Amino acid sequence: MRQGRIEKTVEVGGDKSISHRALMFSALAKGSTKIKNFLTASDTLVTLGALRRLGVRIEKRKEEVIVSSTGRLVFGGRYLNMGESGTSMRLLAGILAAAKVEVILKAAPSLQRRPMSRITIPLRQMQANIFGRRRNGVEYPPLVIRAVKSLRAIDYRMPQASAQVKSAIIFAALKAKGRTYIHQPFISRDHTERMLKVFGGRIRKKGKLIEVEPSLLKTPQEIFIPADFSSAAYFLALALLRPKTCLRVKRVGVNPTRSGLLRVLKRMGAKLRIKNRNSRYFEPYADIEAESSSLKGVVVKEEEIPLLIDELPLVFVLAAFASSSSRIYGLRELRVKETDRIHSLECNLKNMGVEFKVFSYRNRRGEEDFYVEIKGGGFKKFAQIRSFSDHRTAMSMAIGVGAQGRKVEIDDWHCVGKSFPDFREKIKEILGPHIF
């Protein structure tokens, strides 16, 4: 199918991870905070709705949110529904463990399958009264949180790198007695640490070590949220895979703990340019430009995974179009996302004629882990995409199919609203209405 040249500039919504945290920190700080370029998606609206029920006044105006808070949370109900939002569940658990409230955090079926022991264990060590539904020695939602007189600081060595787990502990540490130490096995996203400084929190970082002291937060009055790197990544991938294409995505967050995909893409031979970089803001951002490229296979190491965890489905798809095979290690966390993303991508890529193999191994901590080997060469055939109700599986596969000029057929688009409600409209603007 012949394809004409495309050169376009794209704008995507605010960063989902930062939008969650901006709401939470604003709720904990006394006064009024204006949040600009807030992402309106089903996940972030879960956090917004929960904080309203916790007594926080929140006014929403399109992509702007104004949070007015006394700095204290109150709750007269019994349940808060976290929907499908793992970020809402884990981070609010850390906040509520210290908030002297009684609450049960409920979850939609997909979130009920995600493990919560990774937060309940350290929070209980801090003397929080929190527990989940136990199955085979692991705790899952719903989470029951009961009021305690106070929390205590801990010295905690994290079994796995996780921005959500780290953030839950940091939030709890703001109200704990003493200094909390968090040791990370690998560096993970540091949105929480950066934003805590903006709100006047007492936090220090020394390599993989984080130190947090009790803090009374102060509003910075206004916060700007850069464009979501994960959402931007779909358009970068589209430009790389589609012939005669150059796309620029504006004001994208380029936090180095979030943008590990850029380093992987450059090793694959991707033509990328970073322009108009703003490094003075607490979250750096820039325009990113990508154009059609001949990609080669890549090896992604275990320690890189926390820096591109949400972009891994896209890495799998890009690897399928490389000129040689790729290996990606350290994928155990993909088993417990919205779906088992190793399985969802394996099914879809095999349906497209891609050779995809999964292997287990023992990682450096002695745990069972997984790596995949993907043979490049492109899609050999086309089939309906199975979303597995997972937004990142759906969008990553849609990019692979759409970049070939083929009509994208998928069993369910509803899940995309979790992080990128206008994904289809943005793609249509670039490729034309025939693509869906």
Explain what this protein looks like in three dimensions:
This protein is of the alpha/beta class and 436 residues long. It is built from 13 helices and 22 strands. It has helices spanning 16-28, 42-53, 86-96, 109-112, 117-125, 163-173, 191-198, 229-241, 260-267, 312-320, 341-351, 391-402, 423-431; strands spanning 6-10, 31-36, 57-61, 64-69, 79-81, 103-106, 129-135, 138-146, 151-152, 155-157, 176-177, 180-183, 202-206, 209-213, 222-224, 245-253, 271-278, 285-291, 299-300, 326-328, 356-362, 368-374. The strands form six sheets. The protein has a four-stranded mixed β-sheet. α10 runs parallel beside α11 (341-351). The protein is globular. The two termini are 16 Å apart. The model has no long low-confidence stretch (mean pLDDT 96).
List the helices and strands and how they pair.
Layout: E1 6-10, H1 16-28, E2 31-36, H2 42-53, E3 57-61, E4 64-69, E5 79-81, H3 86-96, E6 103-106, H4 109-112, H5 117-125, E7 129-135, E8 138-146, E9 151-152, E10 155-157, H6 163-173, E11 176-177, E12 180-183, H7 191-198, E13 202-206, E14 209-213, E15 222-224, H8 229-241, E16 245-253, H9 260-267, E17 271-278, E18 285-291, E19 299-300, H10 312-320, E20 326-328, H11 341-351, E21 356-362, E22 368-374, H12 391-402, H13 423-431
Parallel strand pairs: 1-16, 2-15, 5-6, 9-11, 10-12, 19-20
Antiparallel strand pairs: 2-4, 3-4, 6-8, 7-8, 12-14, 13-14, 16-18, 17-18, 20-22, 21-22
Helix pairs in contact: 1-2, 1-3, 1-7, 2-3, 3-6, 5-6, 8-12, 10-11, 10-12
Summarize the structure.
The chain has helices at residues 16-28, 42-53, 86-96, 109-112, 117-125, 163-173, 191-198, 229-241, 260-267, 312-320, 341-351, 391-402, 423-431; strands at residues 6-10, 31-36, 57-61, 64-69, 79-81, 103-106, 129-135, 138-146, 151-152, 155-157, 176-177, 180-183, 202-206, 209-213, 222-224, 245-253, 271-278, 285-291, 299-300, 326-328, 356-362, 368-374.
